[in-house]
Amino acid sequence: MSSRKLVSVQEITNIEPIEGADRIEVARILGWRVVVGKDMHLKPGDRVAYFETDSLLPAYDPRYKAFQARGQKTMIVGSMEITGHVLRTVKLRGVYSQGLIMRLDELGFRYTPPVGTDITDKANVLKYEEPLPMGGAQIGRFDAPCSKSDAPRLQTLTDHWDEIKTLKAVPTVKVDGASTTLSMDERGQVHVYSRNWELDSMSSNMRLAKRFQLDKMLWPGMAVQFELCGPGIQSNRLKLPAQRPFVFAVWKDHHKIDRDQWPTGMPNLAVPELDENEWALTGSVDDMIAKVDGLRGNVTKDRLDEGIVWHLREDQQLSEGLANELGANRCFKIINNKYLTKNGL
């Protein structure tokens, strides 16, 4: 899967009551739980449009007019400024609700597409991104010898859970920052990227990478991906005293390599690695999500961690379906629900 399906056609697998609630209930979709109104009259087997969290519902689109009163954010896309409501994780009557369910006819569909169909473009939805701490200019599109860093959440992989549990995976802490890619081309020139853009040498991302000498650890055809964290970035939710990189992936010629193959120096700047036995992939998807809920203290003492990313070891064969879902990144994540709700994410 080359890009995240923000809006897709999915089937409701179950409807669950909420204790003491007369007007709302929980709809289960894949591994997600979504609080919905009983007046929607949803039932198992219904196909609906499912919107993932981080979806920005544009204010100019009349289909989303009713959502704008719940709060708006503005994002710069190219030369355009787009305002809309952003879907976040919320807790209602003690239940985490993640995402949004709408009927397909509300989006203008006169037919029912197959389950799994990506309808992000037809829904006119964008992924909300917080402003970049660039201090420089965008000079081109993302063109690094690696994939963009956007691991799918385990909730979207429920159909592959039995296979995932048989695989070897390295659990690492997901660190909240501005994702950055640094690469060296075949001529030895270093480039820096954030999200979809290449940034110039004056960007904060490049200056920090050079301060920690990440550029000197690369060789041609290599890329390193890290979270730029600290004061002035993503509200510095981890309360770090100074800006620093947390390396989470290293690539050689579009191939992600295991940590024991990283160049000297990079492991010293890596995101924290967790105990493989403690965080073995066992039980149900719900069990794993509940276990991550409340994770804290692995980056900053006593502070909540954003979550966990499991990186599959490279010497393993995956089914075609799972390989397509994970792409070349070969990793997936669970985000800490307590972290999301505490920070309004």
UniProtKB/TrEMBL annotation:
Signal sequence interval, chain numbering: none
Source organism: Bifidobacterium longum
Segments forming domain RNA ligase: 171-314
Keywords: Ligase
InterPro entries in the cross-refs: NA-bd_OB-fold (IPR012340), RNA_ligase_dom_REL/Rnl2 (IPR021122)
The protein, known as: RNA ligase, DRB0094 family
Matches recorded under Pfam families: PHA02142, RNA_ligase
An example Gene Ontology molecular-function term: ligase activity
